[in-house]
Amino acid sequence: MANYKVTLKTELKHGSFYWVSTINADSEEEAAIAAEHLFMAEMENSADWSFSDSDIEIV
Question: How far is it, in rounded angstroms, from Cα 16 to Cα 47?
Answer without folding.
Answer: 19
